[in-house]
Amino acid sequence: MAGPRILQDDAVEEKGDRARMASFVGAIAVADLVRTTLGPKGMDKILQSTGRQKEVMVTNDGATILKSLHVDNPAAKVLVDISKVQDDEVGDGTTSVVVLAGELLREAERLMNKKIHPMTIIDGYRKAAECGRAALEAMARNNSGDPAKFHEDLIRIAKTTLSSKIVSQDKDHFAKLAVDAVLRLKGSTNLASIQIIKKPGGSLKDSFLDEGFILDKKIGVGQPKRIENAKILVANTAMDVDKIKIYGARVRVDGMGKVAEIEAAEKEKMREKCRKIIAHGINCFINRQLIYNLPEEIFADAGVMAIEHADFDGIDRLALVTGGEIASTFDNPESVKLGECKVIEEIMIGEDKLIHFSGVAMGEACTIVLRGASSHLLDEAERSLHDALCVLTQAVVDSRVIWGGGWPEVMMARHVDELGKKTPGKKSLAMESFATALRAIPSIIAENAGLDSADLVAQMRAEHFKEEGDEDRMLAPGIDVVSCGVADMEKLGIYESFKVKQSVLLSATEAAEMILRVDQIVKCAPRRREGM
Amino acid sequence: MALAFDEFGRPFVIIREQEQKSRLKGLDAQKANIMAAKSVARVLRSSLGPKGMDKMLQSPDGDVTVTNDGATILEQMEVENQIGKLMVQLSRSQDYEIGDGTTGVVVLAGALLEHAEALLDKGIHPIRVAEGYEMASKIAVQQLNKIAQKFEFSKDDVESLVQTCMTTLSSKIVGRCKRKLAEIAVKAVLGVADLERRDVNLDLIKIEGKVGGKLEDVELVHGIIVDKEMSHPQMPKVIENAKIAILTCPFEPPKPKTKHKVDIDSVEKFEGLRLQEKQYFTDMVNQCKDSGATLVICQWGFDDEANHLLMHHDLPAIRWVGGVELELIAIATGGRIVPRFQELTPEKLGKAGIVREKVFGTSKDRMVYIENCANSRAVTILIRGGNKMVVEEAKRSLHDALCVARNLIRDNSIVYGGGSAEIACSLAVEAAADTVAGVEQYAMRAFADGLDSVPMALAENSGYQPIESLTAVKAEQMRDNNPYLGIDCNDTGTNDMRKQGVFETLIGKRQQLMLATQVVKMILKIDDVISPSQYD
């Protein structure tokens, strides 16, 4: 029916089945895009930016891939958004959450073709998700009481996370790095105090964790290159010219002589400032802003090491590491807390000179130096490590772990199936679909590894249905992509963090529900931009 | 061409009709208007009720909103048509006045217009239709008042309030944890309510959303949450028994409004300027410190030097706090907003039991909680959710629930939901119609039919046969003389809304009826639409 037009000229309106189809197609397309990156044998994607440089990025990280996409489909945007949130909130599982949401929608589409109302599907999905979560919670184990075991759990979680990334060859090494770094945080989730420095050259194996702190900066010319028992003043102040902050002030001179005088006064002002800084009794001065030649020279004369232009994060971390405060005024030297460390020295990593602080007061911060053949490799390694670190910090807070390798999905699917059998009404169909969607995850993992997915998942399912006491019943049957079969995840030591899995389940269901509920899409006319 | 003649008999043009200018007159205008209003109403029809669907809206900038809230849908659809805009305003005024029922009012107006169209086809004059509608709406409102029930609650027994909020929330995506949200909404409203005066200032309830976590993590904070962090990373993260200085002046040297210049022409003056500058900062910080403040909240930023000085004097500070938040903080902590450092005195400080900074997730998101405030009336609801759209939708849903709770505190009369009130009114109007002589009788019947379409839409959205279920319930209401029977949307097995506990506020329903009638009357009265030519 052609009613009067109520929307703007360029606006697009889609209704009912068409709207639903548009959102399904969009969401499933996005899910399919990242589908092949799932699991330990997942493939990577090359992303080329649209910028002038046409920079290339190679990655396996779902959130990174989706972030760089310019999607126009509103439903696809929902999926991109959940992946981003998953990244911010728990750091890992960014691919899984999108793939699961995509599978849920695929199943929902099948149900809708059978003329089942979306609200019924949502109802079933909600109940199924709740049931899955309860099952997951019941099976989660907590080893936080036993430090040795807990440590082992953490290493295993890290290995599982890293195994799907580019660093999987050296995952033992990296897992240890990550766990050591996270344990130093002592329960805080502030990843800012773990610094990651990337230096091309060497191989991934040469990456190391440094207990001290490494600043990727240079020491001023003519200043000592090595200081023992350093007293550090961390500052954020202008060391070029002090701006006059009083509004409306301007310098007016009436002769060349005056100019010279003012200049001298200005210099004197800076000297005074430097003197005050030196009066703190320091032998190392680190500033966030530039240090001009004049103050640098003064510092060099006083035998103080001056480091300029340490960025914001660097300053924050340094202050945290050395225990000093970030100073901007220097009038009361007695009350400013200075940072301390045993040795500051210039070290070489590959070709570059870096400044190394060792023996620092607070043990919380540390630096991970990544080495690798190319900058793309390093970028990807950094993302992988970041994932692992995020997961570990979350695991330290919520120490429950579960097995990985597709085990949780099949286990939840079993429970949801059972619930479906007991539920009267059309909802049970939705629950069965939910179970099918869950089982799609291990099947994709197997597929990506080039295995016979249908066979493996069926085997796993059978294994899950074995009663307690049956012969050779596995504790946690899952997919072993190395030996190409079903294996016990407990024996293989493939663990995942409970929190990650739970959030994957809940966010995926939430997103699927959101897309299912939509029966009309209104796209407003795009805003006109100037000059287009 | 509209022509008129001046006193000399010369013709002149009143409205220039050109190619671009469109003009509709008479019945055509009414038909076109009704059509436009109907198509707006049709958009919302499928969103009505607990099983209503959502709409996905893409803004001009490409941002996606998914919502079920009538007012939000219409607002973001950017309706162009003038009559369509009337409907948008209708929904908005319901939102401002009541806060809930924004979908229902538009659906009702659409249905009334649809039935009016049939009457126009019969040749009934639109004004007569409008008059009939007016009479019918009076009867419907009387009937509403008659079937309304007072409903009792006290500070300790809030169960009934929670139930009502749950009715509102059940139609939203947050329906999954409606119980928890409803409880939070009721607690929040009771927290700020003035039960003596039966008034609630919703401004005291702040709804803050943070993406991440899950819906169940939503929390009610008896205090204020500010989405900011301490200005200096090394300031203490927890302050107990905080005395808060609330400032609207920057930590910077003064900037007089009048244009001025300070001329520096000698070294002495240059030195003086430097000292003066330093003095400013020290004075400012000292003034804060001397007043006894242990926390400074400032609307503006500070200079690095000021920041460090504050830190140095153990004076934690939060900068760039928005004006509205600042006011809330002032209300909550009982402090005064101080515009000048000189005016800072100990009496003007706000007090809070604990102020703490909390970190979220793996990113460095921080928020500052100000709790146990001196005046505990201000509360904040922090919503978490899997993605941005869920959080936004939850915010809107919670706002609706808060409004409902407020309305109940203002006036504790309720009617039952599930379309039962509409059916009861429809029956009353139909009965009254028979006693009215004249053309208005037809209009009143049409009004009754229009009322019926609300439960019909409910039934349709819940997957029932609309006509069958409506007639069944209607017959039952008539037979048992029980106005509490409605459509069983949730498939619970009973039509009795009292048993299901589905309430709506009387004022909300009444407002819906009256607003819808008003707008319909207005649209019916338009008989000429002149749209100006486009500027090119």
Automatic annotation (TrEMBL), chain A:
> What is any Pfam family matched here?
Cpn60_TCP1
Q: Does the keyword Transmembrane apply?
A: no
Please give the GO cellular component terms listed in this UniProt entry: chaperonin-containing T-complex; cytoplasmic stress granule
Origin, by domain of life?
A: Eukaryota
Q: Cite the InterPro entries for this sequence.
A: Chap_CCT_beta, Chaperone_TCP-1, Chaperonin_TCP-1_CS, Cpn60/GroEL/TCP-1, GroEL-like_apical_dom_sf, GROEL-like_equatorial_sf, TCP-1-like_intermed_sf, TCP-1_chaperonin
Report the SUPFAM superfamilies cross-referenced here: GroEL apical domain-like, GroEL equatorial domain-like, GroEL-intermediate domain like
The protein's UniProt keywords, in alphabetical order, are:
ATP-binding, Chaperone, Cytoplasm, Nucleotide-binding
The entry's localization annotation reads: Cytoplasm
For this UniProt entry, the molecular function terms from Gene Ontology, in alphabetical order, are: ATP binding; ATP hydrolysis activity; ATP-dependent protein folding chaperone; unfolded protein binding
Whether Lipoprotein counts among this entry's keywords is no
* Record function comment: Molecular chaperone; assists the folding of proteins upon ATP hydrolysis. Known to play a role, in vitro, in the folding of actin and tubulin.
According to its UniProt record, which protein family does this protein belong to? Belongs to the TCP-1 chaperonin family.
| Stored PANTHER family | CHAPERONIN (PTHR11353)
Q: What is this protein called?
A: CCT-beta
Q: Can you name the source organism? A: Chara braunii (Braun's stonewort)
UniProtKB/TrEMBL annotation, chain B:
Stored Gene3D superfamilies: GroEL, GroEL-like equatorial domain, TCP-1-like chaperonin intermediate domain
Any one annotated GO CC term: chaperonin-containing T-complex
Note the SUPFAM superfamilies from the entry: GroEL apical domain-like (SSF52029), GroEL equatorial domain-like (SSF48592), GroEL-intermediate domain like (SSF54849)
> Which GO molecular function entries does the Swiss-Prot or TrEMBL record give?
ATP binding; ATP hydrolysis activity; ATP-dependent protein folding chaperone; unfolded protein binding
Compartment(s) where it occurs, according to its Swiss-Prot or TrEMBL record = Cytoplasm
Q: Does the keyword Chaperone apply?
A: yes
Q: Which UniProt keywords apply?
A: ATP-binding, Chaperone, Cytoplasm, Nucleotide-binding
What Pfam families is this protein classified in? Cpn60_TCP1
CDD domains noted in UniProt: TCP1_epsilon (cd03339)
**Subunit field text:** Heterooligomeric complex of about 850 to 900 kDa that forms two stacked rings, 12 to 16 nm in diameter.
The record's comment on protein family reads: Belongs to the TCP-1 chaperonin family.
Tell me which PANTHER family the record gives: CHAPERONIN
Q: What does this protein do?
A: Molecular chaperone; assists the folding of proteins upon ATP hydrolysis. Known to play a role, in vitro, in the folding of actin and tubulin.
Protein's name according to its UniProt entry: T-complex protein 1 subunit epsilon
Tell me which species this is from: Chara braunii
